[in-house]
Amino acid sequence: MAIRSFFVPFLLLVLWFYSSLSPVLSLYEDQVGLMDWHQQYIGKVKQAVFSTQKTGRRRVIVSTEENVIASLDLRHGEIFWRHLLGSNDVIDGIDIGLGKYVITLSSGGSILRSWNLPDGQMVWESFLQGPKHSKSLLLLPKHEIDCINVVQTNLKIEKDNVIVVFSNDRLHAVSCIDGEVLWKKDFETESFETQQVIQPPGSDLIYVVGFAASSQFEMYQINARNGELLKHESAIFSSGFLRELSLVSSETVVALDSTGSILLTISFQNGEISFQQTPISNIVEDSSGPAVIIPSSVPGIFAIKINSVTIFIRVIGKGKLEVVEKLNQETAVSNALPISESQQAFALVQHAGSEIHLVAKLAHDWDANLLKESIKMDQQRGIPHKVFINNYIRTDRSHGFRLLIVMEDHSLLLLQQGAIVWSREDGLASIIDVTASELPVERDGVSVAKVEHNLFEWLKGHMLKLKGTLMLASPEDVAAIQSMRLKSSEKSKMARDHNGFRKLLIVLTRAGKLFALHTGDGHIVWSHLLHKSEACQSPVGLNLYQWQVPHHHALDENPSVLVISRCGPSSDAPGVLSFVDTYTGKELNSLSLDHAVVQVIPLPHTDSTEQRLHLLIDSDKHAHLYPKTSEALGIFKREFSNIYWYSVEDHNSIIKGHALKCKCTGEVADEFCFDARDLWSVVFPSESEKITATVTRKLNEMVHTQAKVMADQDVMYKYISRNLLFVATVAPKGSGEIGSVTPEESWLVAYLIDIVTGRILYRVTHHGAQGPVHAVFSENWVVYHFFNLRAHRYEMSVIEIYDQSRADNKDVWKLVLGKHNLTSRISLFSRPEVITKSQSYFFTHSVKAIAVTSTAKGITSKQLLIGTIGDQVLALDKRFLDPRRSVNPTQAEKEEGIIPLTDSLPIIPQSYVTHALRVEGLRGIITVPAKLESTTLVFAHGVDLFFTQLAPSRTYDSLTEDFSYALLLITIVALVAAIFVTWRLSERKELQDKWR
Amino acid sequence: MEKGKGVMGSGRRWAVDFSDNSTAPSSRDIPDPLGFNRASVDQDDSTVSRQKKDAESNWKAQKAWEVAQAPFKNLLMMGFMMWMAGNTVHLFSIGITFSALWQPISALQGVGKVFEPYKDSKVELLGPKLLFIALNLGGLALGVWKLNTLGLLPTHASDWVSSLPPAQEVEYSGGGIPL
């Protein structure tokens, strides 16, 4: 004890010594890629356009649901260039113009941009405003997106290629060269909703068709040269329309009536509108249920879906319909691809068990298949969602086809000649939740990587390393050594290492797929798509929890994670629990619950097989205990009266605290179900405060000590409680964008609330401040980031909480003899006396995410990890956010490591942990402690993934990478030699002395 | 010293003693050579040797006091060094302090050895020894005091609580914004 307490200040001193020497933790150039990896993704592809006309680099331009436009290499699937548009700038359509420009329409049809195809530079940008650019129109964004179409025309108006855009209730013709709006056309009809903009090939006419009210079909014929309205026709169909339209020829569309049981063939040839009604039951025998039109653009053919059956119907002549095929499997249809003057091809992809069937057909000849292939497909990819077709001319002048398909797990695959040419795991661009898992313990014969191929390679490697250490290596050797270090098999070994650097990152993606990523090099160890069951057709993954983390007595069991998913989009849909083995990725068990899952509370208790007890709260505030075993129930009963939870109702600004009451009464009589009672509630005045952020401490955070020692040997006791909640509220007026309110109308209130008792421990108001608020809670401090409207700058504040009731524990003898109650269990119902210290600083960046480093024992000092607006991760020492900083610290305070107070937090370029890389679309930063106390593992995810190791106080417990082993070896050898020589000399001298 | 005790256990028949006994007035069991009168020689030397012995014991006592006072100089020098080293913890001050602690301790361990040369039946060594010990203890105290001023002694509450883990809470809670 004495030695330890003696040692800790000494250790801290050494740490301080080191950190004051070099507060910057940067990398050398050759260390990039040793500890870190970076992966680039694009997200689920919405639309793809091929660019293969010209020779040279073949590529495909894609737009994705993550708002990325990217140019991919068709041969390997690599990204040539990529742009991530802002989250309020959603891409509505893309196309290629003049073979060299990528045209994108975004932001609800109000921004049209042109990008240079080879390198992705922006050429021009134009803003398209409509007549109804008023509030009433903005209230219907869904309709706006529906009625946007990009139509490429080959018209030459004064030798200029024209893009026709319908957006914001106005038809625009925009020059492809410079983005200038050539003409625009408004439509007078009230409540007109455009469905299609059609330009028949080889004519100067543009048809704009759509619905007005719900039962009126409207058609406008417009001169494409000048936007002159040539004809306007409308017709009324009494029983109304469903909103979808399918285009079967340039002058015919197919729609469904409002009940979904009658097909309407609408032709507007020569400006005359005529309806043809065909009840679906007439052409399809056993049709039950309403039909839905699948959007496609295959001439002469359209597809409808009834239940899960896809039916292809051909339009013959005057509104006559004929069923050509019924497909029971999940099917995706591509758009039509013109392959010659008169022929158009399209592709169908069907999913059948472990295979997918690809069929390419000509639009006018259903029976002849241009291509028919079956490809084995990993079942974890699910069903095909989208297919895009492209053709190439083979050497024998026949047509070959390549298909780009998007699968259920958001992966992107290119298929050609019956094989998968490449695949991209773009589901990883939308990670919802991350947890870490250990790797298996290394055993004989289990997952030992192949070390070196043969003895020669091994010898060569070691010779090179030796040369490197002795500084004899030539530049080529240095390059070879570097590549050897990067590819070191040690890194990606599938077994635990001594320092705990190698782990599995289990990530859940929006597509409902689990991936296990190896922290060594980021490769995918396994992946698992959440199964659909009879009870649940479309589970939506929500969260991941550590279910079983075996150590000690249950080491022979594999660890597992719990995936909480919900059966449908609404919040009271029943939940689904899946238990997945983290070593193998096999789903151990899946439970379809009969109640919803609104909250999940992992309890601090495990049963004899190390399964963690979880309490699931449903929408009726019943608590359900899992696992449902009597042993778990026994453990739970013991702690029954000590379990509390809180719920945040952010829409009406109430925080409520609950406790368990008794077993469920009523219809859900189940011994694992418990009723709850409300304990307390904090109601924020809704006219002046609105909850924007709530943060608690991480559950698995380790804190080493409860005392904070000042420079003058004084002690302050930290108020460390797992049951503290940080809440930030803003004025409802100021919850919009920055700058939308004056400083007088906007404020931010920060609260610290005890979750168990509902006691407000601290409250502070920042006048003239505005959200968004990003906060992080660790140990006894909170750091939060907001905008200061008066200073026109971002600010970061820190609050530290100290326990005043412990402050008089200063009798050394009592402490020496252990006669104190500082470590005994305390109840939160005893009144705490806390004092807080806080300070604010300006900060240059706006922030996307904040996290804090976490280490195994919590001894190492902390760093804040700030995801900046530039999609980088900045490491900022916690010492900069210390409320005890003052302008002129005393000598003692300086010794303690207190930095003189400055108005803003410094941003040191070398402390970007992402160094030169960007994590596009950064959403979250996760820290996982390694076994080595000094080191923490950092995983940042967004559209890209980035992983690295950090040592906030440097690696004080291990030798660094650049430690000179050669020097150590030489020193030891020299010392041994010296000892030997002097020993011989002294012996000889002694002998001579004796003879004297 | 066993002097020619003749047969000693293991069949030793005889032994010749080569040791020089000329000065030592011992071994009365062996008769003196003929014509040698020991008494007269002793009588002659006794006055001279007594004087000599007195002088020697005086000298020894004096020396012993000198040795006993030696740590005082050391103490002064140590004090000066400590003053020079200052009150901040770094290599130099730690080195000085530890040597200030080590010197008295090693000196105290070797008290007997230090006064070994002055051991005499007539010399009173208790006084010098006590002084020596006291001075060294003073030096030790100085070292400890220095250690304390450097903040390396666990005399503050902070030294005892710095590794206390946070107290456990009886209650447990969870929750948050609905999923």
UniProtKB/TrEMBL annotation, chain B:
Main location: endoplasmic reticulum
Chain segments carrying region Disordered: 1-55
Transmembrane parts of this sequence: 80-105, 125-145
Membrane topology recorded in Swiss-Prot or TrEMBL: Multi-pass membrane protein
Entry-linked Pfam families: EMC4
Protein name: ER membrane protein complex subunit 4
This protein's GO CC annotations: endoplasmic reticulum membrane
Organism: Hibiscus syriacus
UniProt keyword annotations, A-Z: Endoplasmic reticulum, Membrane, Transmembrane, Transmembrane helix
Subcellular location: Endoplasmic reticulum membrane
Top-rank taxon: Eukaryota
Family under the similarity heading: Belongs to the EMC4 family.
